[in-house]
Each structure stands twice: as C-alpha cells, then as structure tokens.
Amino acid sequence: MEKLHSKGLNHGAPETDGITIRWAGHYDLVVGLLSKLAGGKWSPAQATLELAGLVPGEKVLDVGCGTGILALAAQELVRAAGEVHGIDADPEMIAVARRKAAKAGVDLDFQVGLIEDIPFPDDQFDVVLSSLMIHHLPGEDLKRRGFTEIRRVLKPGGRLLVVDFEPPTEGPLRLLLGHILGHHRMMENDVRRLTALAEAASFTEVEVGRTSHRLLSFVRGIAGQD
C-alpha cells in the first residue's frame, strides 16, 4: 500500500479542546457490553458501513478511529486496491488499533491526529468516516474547524459520513438512558445541528437521518468543488 505522508505529527498526546477517551484498554469491552445490553444489535461500525457505500479501491479516512473497529471493517470492503487510514487524539487508542491490525495481518495506517488539524495534505480521500466522535467536540467552533478540515482532505466529489449517538427526546428509553448516563453530553446530542456546519464547510447534498440503530443518527454530504 502506498502510504500518505503526514504533516508535523506529534506521536504523543496532542493538545486539543476536544474530549479524549483515556481508557483504550477497556474500550472494546465496553462496546461489547453495550452490544449485549442491546440484544447483540449495538454496532456503530456496522451502522456506519451500511450507509458508507464503500467500494474496492477507495481511499478512506476514519476520524476518531479509536481502537480501529471501523477502520478494520472498512479495509475488508475497499480490499487490497484501496487504503484505510485512521487518526485519533489518544496515543493509547492508536497503539491498540495498530496491534489489532498487526495481529490480523492487515496493512492499515493508524496515527495520532486531531479532527481540527488532520495530518494529511489536501484532496487525498474518497471518503471520510467518523463514528461516535463528534459529540466529544465541545462548542460549535471546534466542530466547524473539524468539518472544514474534513472538506480539505476530501477530493472534490468525495463523501462525508458522520454517525453519532442521538438519544430519544422523551419516553421510557429516554428516562432509562438518563438514569444510566446522567448529565453526560451524549444525552444532549442532536445530529441535526451538524447539517449547517457541513453546509458551511462547502458540503452539498447534505442529509441527516437515523441509522439502522434507533440510538444512532447520521449526517452525510458530498465535498463541493473548490
């Protein structure tokens, strides 16, 4: 696989105003437990790939890749002719993702990087994915910078797909989640608010909706011409 060259990468934890998960060693366990609680149906990676429409040969970036669950699954779809790269703000997450890729014998590029300063040149990717990460960005300004950076590294006509947690606004499930999560920022997440940010970053055909999982919503769009 031909590797992209990154710009000025700090292999330690970079400074960011975003919220970084610091429990990489337990992340997959938590995801597995959530899946069991949801009757085996909680799979953000699967919900994302169902909408991504990846095809062999595409070059993909997973922003906020965590332990590499989505990126590894995406590589199976783009196959040897394609490329998948993953960035995450937490070096421990990247270390886990790299170990997974090595164990699977898969040639993936995982590196430390921020959504507001994506470590790749302009116009590099056919698709940029992000799953369960955007709600970690407090404030509209940081999200706006993130969408602008994603547009920068996408080729004109490239595809953006963001999938994130969106709780029900009322009803028993809302009460249950509130009891479990308390005042966690996830409880106030509204993916529909991302539509304006995507459009402001020169994405066209922007749409928002629910995924196949009732607690996950998406926003997607096409990178407009410069």
Task: Lay out the secondary structure.
Elements: H1 24-37, H2 44-52, E1 59-63, H3 69-78, E2 83-88, H4 91-104, E3 109-112, E4 125-131, H5 140-153, E5 154-165, H6 172-181, H7 194-200, E6 203-210, E7 216-223
Parallel strand pairs: 1-2, 1-4, 2-3, 4-5
Antiparallel strand pairs: 5-7, 6-7
Helix pairs in contact: 2-3, 5-7
Overview of the molecule:
By secondary structure, this protein is an alpha/beta fold. It has one domain: Rossmann fold (3-Layer(aba) Sandwich). The chain is built from seven helices and seven strands. A seven-stranded mixed sheet has the order 3-2-1-4-5-7-6, sandwiched between helices. The longest helix is centred in the N-terminal third of the chain and has 14 residues. It is globular and about 40 Å long. The two termini are 28 Å apart. The N terminus is likely disordered.
How is this structure best summarized?
With 226 residues, the protein is α/β, with parallel strands linked by helices.
Number of structurally distinct domains = 1
Strand runs, count: 7
N→C terminal distance:
28 Å
Strand order of the largest sheet: 3-2-1-4-5-7-6
Global mean pLDDT:
82
Name given to the CATH architecture: 3-Layer(aba) Sandwich
Q: Pairing-aware structural class of the strands and helices? A: alpha/beta
Shape: globular
Q: Proportion of β residues?
A: 15-25%
| SSE ordering | HHEHEHEEHEHHEE
Largest sheet: 7 strands, mixed
The Cα radius of gyration reads: 17 Å
Low-confidence stretches: 1-11
Task: Name the CATH superfamily assignment.
Answer: Vaccinia Virus protein VP39
At the fold tier of CATH, the topology name is: Rossmann fold
CATH domain class name: Alpha Beta
Count every helix, treating DSSP H or I runs of 4 or more residues as helices: 7
